[in-house]
Amino acid sequence: MPESPEVQALVEDLGARLSGHELTGVDVVEFRATKTRARPPSSLRGERVRGVERHGKHVDIRVGASDVDAQHLIVSLGRHGWARYSSPEADAPAADAPPTLVAFTFDDGAVVEFTDAGDWVSLGCWVVDDPRDVPAVAKLGPDPADPAFSRADFDQMVAGRRKQVKAVLQEQESLAGIGNAYSDEILHTAKISPVAHAASLTDAELDRLFEATVGIITAAIDTQRGVPIDQLKAAKVAAMRVHGRAGEACPVCGDTVLDFSFASTTAQYCPTCQTGGERLPLRSA
């Protein structure tokens, strides 16, 4: 699942490529990806891109004659969505590449395709006057990547919650942009069990969790910045210390990284660093 560091790198790349260019063609291959049927993506044909921004895990392509009357193409990448950029000279995508659901062509011949690799359609597109007209964007909590994000913001959203801390980190209404992978990395760095309730955390643990949340996300954004968008997913995987590393040695203590069940997915942790040696349950498939 794309998370804020990869999406931030994506929007910066798209912003640099698309800003100032006119949208000349729209091809909606999968109609279920269109969430505003009265204002389909094709209604933006002829508009000029004014910038690209991020809201949590959402891409916001701002188009129009001016910022005052701009419309917003909001793209939710969902669980398996991503983008593919091509120019007239580019080779065709590989046969096993994720299928394109929506494609946008620009006046320089460039094409941006939004893809989805899942068994069900998780990609979604909205055309709105204000990004907050998209319910998921309107409900977003503060973003740890925002320079204005403060310890007070963090405490308001996390401290005292009677909920597993990993769930709180992934809850978009609490903290925008964090998913399964980076929550694993944050908790490992903070040396906190993923199943501990936020309300049970000591002041020292909250200090570590705040520092790890901001540090991991901002460092990942800095690392991913400038990576070609077709390599961002691989770069994310390569940078993980515990997420996706079950069976490997913890880079801090050398213990074996283990899987555990979380919601409908699997996550990873180090028992020595995070749970005092306790092994968390793993349900069979």
Automatic annotation (TrEMBL):
Residue ranges annotated for the Formamidopyrimidine-DNA glycosylase catalytic domain, each copy included: 2-121
Cofactor: Zn(2+)
InterPro entries: FPG_cat (IPR012319), FPG_N (IPR035937), H2TH_FPG (IPR015886), Ribosomal_uS13-like_H2TH (IPR010979), Znf_DNA_glyclase/AP_lyase (IPR000214), Znf_FPG/IleRS (IPR010663)
Superkingdom in the source lineage: Bacteria
GO MF annotation, one: zinc ion binding
Repeat found in the keyword field: no
Record keywords, A-Z: DNA damage, DNA repair, DNA-binding, Endonuclease, Glycosidase, Hydrolase, Lyase, Metal-binding, Multifunctional enzyme, Nuclease, Zinc, Zinc-finger
Domain FPG-type residues, every copy: 241-275
PROSITE patterns on file: FPG_CAT, ZF_FPG_2
Catalyses which reaction(s): Hydrolysis of DNA containing ring-opened 7-methylguanine residues, releasing 2,6-diamino-4-hydroxy-5-(N-methyl)formamidopyrimidine
Biological process, per Gene Ontology: base-excision repair
Family: Belongs to the FPG family.
Protein name: Endonuclease VIII
Species of provenance: Agromyces badenianii
